Amino acid sequence: MGYNRRHFIGNSLAVTTALLLPALDIFGSSKMVTDKLEKGFSLKIMAPYWGFNGSVTDFCKKAKNDGYDGIEILWPADFSKQKELFTALKEHQLAAGFLCRGDEPIPDSNFTTFKKVIIAAAENKYQSPLYLNVHSGKDFFTYEENKRFIDFTVNYSKKTGVPIYHETHRSRMLYSAPAALPYLQKNPELRLTLDISHWCNVSESLLEDQPATVELAISRTDHIHSRVGHAEGPQVSDPRAPEWKAEVAAHFAWWDKVVAFKKEQGKMLTMLTEFGPPSYMPTIPFTNRPVADQWEINVYMMQAWKKRYL
After folding, report:
1. Which of 49, 62, 255, 292 is 20 to 30 A distant from 219 in Cα terms?
2. Number of neighbouring beta carbons within 10 Å of residue 120
3. Residue 110 — φ and ψ, nearest 5°?
């Protein structure tokens, strides 16, 4: 049995590798966004610390060497970790975006933590963040309980000049397209981190039946998490595999529109390559061995974005 299982795993990985498409042709050869870079437009591509097996110092070095402009990382509460992080950012000349959130199930406690973390990240003495990406509220909080997260970030961003973006993330305020719609309609200053893979998963579709909500979200987007989701999950196994061609094409069609908006406006767009580790990444049964290399896929997505939009 041991030999058979190892033999199966080896063959499975071999087949998976054989199916990978090293070229970027799966994304389409024709660009849907103008090649002209309007004055003021820029694209900053960030590396995810999530899933990296190593120190922050090693992570920053690898991100820089592989061509990233910066990194996105959960704001570290520990002062020694902050010092290590900012030392590495300075050494490798990387920008930083910080993930900020509260996790408590009680609205008041969650909001208190949320504010505390945002203030600490935005007003740190080392390096001003390029942006803050926030996980806001909870999917079971009331509209008014969640709205104060928006009100605080809008006012605080105006006060400090630090952009704050609310992520379209499962379990949070903007967990699905229908749930997000009233917040978008009633809060015109709400700005988004668009991780539309979550919406695909929740709605069990590529959102073909909700185009108006998607268009509204796109118009409010300043930051993108470029993970490709599908009807049954938030992450395809490998975007290079031909069986996911339709899902990849749908996501790039949405991202094309965001980039087009930013080029027309002459504004900066930030993007995080956010393919994740297990259990976001599917694994071989009995081993928890991922079916593909997370870092390799994220670098691949970075290169695809540079080729398509720059």
Report:
1. 49
2. 15
3. -60, -45
